[in-house]
Amino acid sequence: MADHDEAFEEAIDLSTVVPPRAEPERAWLNRNVLGMGLTSFLSDFGHEMATAILPAFLASIGAGPAVLGLIEGIADAVSSFVKVWAGHASDRWGHRKAIAVTGYTLTGISKASFALATTWHLVLLGRVIGWFGRGIRGPVRDAMLAESVPPLARGRAFGFHRASDTAGAVAGPLCALVALHLVGMRAIFLLTLVPGLLSAVAFATFVRDPSPSRQGHRFLTSLRTLPSGFRRFMLAVGLFGIADCAPTLLILRVQQGLEPLHGLAVAASTGVALYLLRNVLYASASFPIGALSDRFDRRTLLAAGYGLAAVTFAGFAWLRLTIPIAAVLFALAGTFIAAEDTLEGALAADLLHAESRGLGFGILATVNGVGDFVSSAVVGALWGVFGAGVGFTYAAVVSLLAAVVLFFLRPSRQMMTEG
């Protein structure tokens, strides 16, 4: 009988789910959602303050681009692979909140250690500690967020969270730019302690663990019991991941395109301004996209987001970049990343069983982390050998393929009836 029920659930398609208005309305903008939004705003505020000045600081202590790449690569690897362990641990041990608070605390204090650095090695240590904290908190927080709202309000909850997080990513660099005129770079690193530690305090104070008592399966058992719809979804996510290159490559593309006409200074400042525009669109589009996905098919909307990414990368590949055209492309980039981050999380929550939700979010984060590394490496390599057009054409083609795969694999939404 259980096998028959599971087969029946797997057959349910996204497009056949009862419309959201059929479910009794329950408050979604609750204490947990607000608390996690405030936490992420504060955490990203401090993180982006430090990130904005880190390249210049490393240069001031004699570390060049190769060292920066090494630091970021090691930190990203630590963060990506600890996410699976942390997610599964929260499923198995319970008490997700304690794990998340620990992660936010580690992230909050790590950047202040840069102020003591006289060589790049201490920066590497601090970055690894911070990214370890970032890795253990992410899937745990997302699992708690999914459990804190009605299933048919997950789009709004994830959209609100992404908007709050990205608002911090906009405010942090702006604060760093102002602070640079008032205090030195080392003082800015120390200042990141304030929002960093406040983020941990906010999570500890405002967020309650929706289901602290749980006893999940062992790791291999949990892997085997992941729904097949989620596994199919990961195929599409992985494909898009290996296309979605770092925004720094978009900035470099614009700077190179604008420099012959406008000079290096204007091209560089325009690139920074356009990156800020991208983040503003990212923040402002996240909630509307999430809310829309609570009324319509999330899978189709996410596939459309992947398709929009394909159009954006094609523009970077084939168009002659002027400032207005570049502004449109960066606005599109902010919109598709809002769709990706909001809807991937909400759709993963729909597809996962409650007892393996932490592990599932850990796998989602790791697939995205590996994809980030591969996409930037491949686009950069193709650009270096064949030119920017070939590199971004690769990104456009693979993004379109991911959209097609997501649309036609039709991962089921069988968990939508689960609280």
How would you describe this protein?
With 419 residues, the protein is an all-alpha fold. It has helices at residues 2-11, 31-60, 65-93, 96-110, 120-147, 154-180, 185-191, 193-206, 219-224, 228-241, 247-262, 264-293, 298-318, 323-351, 357-386, 388-409. It is globular.
Keywords:
Growth Hormone, Chain: A; mainly alpha; 419 residues; 16 helices; 0% strand
Quick overview:
The protein has 419 residues and is mainly alpha-helical. The protein is 78% helix and 0% strand.
What is the SS-derived class?
mainly alpha
State the order of secondary-structure elements, H for helix, E for strand: HHHHHHHHHHHHHHHH
Mean pLDDT: 81
Low-confidence stretches: 1-25, 412-419
Report Rg. Answer: 21 Å
Q: Which word captures the global form?
A: globular
How many domain regions?
2
